[in-house]
Amino acid sequence: MGPMFAPLQNDTFLRACWRQATDHTPVWLMRQAGRYLPEYCATRAKAGSFMGLATNVDYATEVTLQPLDRYPLDAAILFSDILTVPDAMGLGLSFAQGEGPKFAKVVRDEAAVAELAVPDMDKLRYVFDAVTSIRRALNGRVPLIGFSGSPWTLACYMVEGGGSDDYRLVKSLMYSRPDLMHRILAVNADAVALYLNTQIEAGAQAVMVFDSWGGVLADGAFQEFSLAYTARVLAQLKREHAGVKIPRIVFTKGGGLWLKEMATLDCEVLGLDWTVNLGHARALVGGQTGGQGKALQGNIDPNVLFAPPAQIELQVKRVLDSFGVPHTDATQSGPTHIFNLGHGISQFTPPEHVKALVEAVHTHSKALRYKR
């Protein structure tokens, strides 16, 4: 038996994941615990560094709960980083102040690829301890989402040694030595599956795969080097834990072109960026009432949050209206929507603008349901 937790008081997000009717559209935000909040910056200063924050259970718990203390969000997401898995593989992750992630070791040749292995999960104990601690601290307020980077996205960082503008190194390896690329991706997929399963055992109530860089691939390469390995992760994930079913979310930034193919993934929810029309996505993959389909998550442009609150409200309505009237039949499943950004929140976002967004989602989504 795993740890014991308080019963859930707000399950709107989980019900939407399962395509069940809800009284409002649930909302949470990618990177909702982050640098746009002054309280986060204060905690990070105490921790001394990003990794100091992520590897300290008390700090990770504190910052995960900060946005929930400010806004009536419908889910919490574990405070961590997508690069913890390659770090545990021995690549040496670091974050310089004001810069992105950097790896001390890169994976670009046969010798480096041969050394890769699924890491010992004990090296990631700080993540699982944080999951359990956060879940306890939430005390049933809202569900907790665990996450990982996708095999392809992790490979981009592992080969490039950090972020990239042109993905030249990782794509060069992919085109010149597809055998090495497949080997990296296979190890990554098995590591991600084990990592997410261990998060589920620690208390995560839903899990999300961030395929942040899937959209940089050419058609054909996306299916072979990204989609196939995301599918390999999903095939290994636990469907339930302690008698409770665990929904799985896949978000591919720039993946709108391949929605039909992503509909074949063994997951409950597809995340969309702001380039996709929600109504079109619903028609394509959302399914009918009483039938099968994917719940959809997204997809307002994060830069909308720099507009005045009245404009934010207008754009929220536009996104909700583009999805259309939500499914309200409590006796069967049907098309559902989880409101989110099309990518992570910017560190420069005014916190009061987030309040306007969350309130507008709840207010307008209720009005949409009860317009009769």
Helical fraction equals 40-55%
Mind telling me the CATH class? Alpha Beta
> What is the fold-level CATH name, i.e. the topology?
TIM Barrel
**Strands, count:** 11
Main sheet specs: 7 strands, parallel
The percent range for strand residues is 5-15%
Domain module count: 1
Name the features.
two-stranded antiparallel sheet, globular, alpha/beta, seven-stranded parallel beta sheet, 372 residues, TIM Barrel
What does this entry look like structurally?
This protein has 372 residues and is of the alpha/beta class. The longest helix has 25 residues, at 178-202. It has 15 helices and eleven strands. The protein has helices spanning 12-17, 38-47, 50-54, 57-70, 84-91, 110-115, 125-138, 151-160, 168-176, 178-202, 221-236, 259-262, 278-286, 309-323, 351-370; strands at residues 76-77, 93-95, 101-103, 144-149, 206-211, 240-241, 244-245, 248-252, 269-271, 295-300, 337-341. Helix 8 (151-160) crosses helix 10 and helix 14 packs parallel to helix 15. The model has no long low-confidence stretch (mean pLDDT 96). The chain has one domain (12-370): TIM Barrel (Alpha-Beta Barrel). Helix 13 (278-286) links the parallel strand 9 (269-271) and strand 10 (295-300).
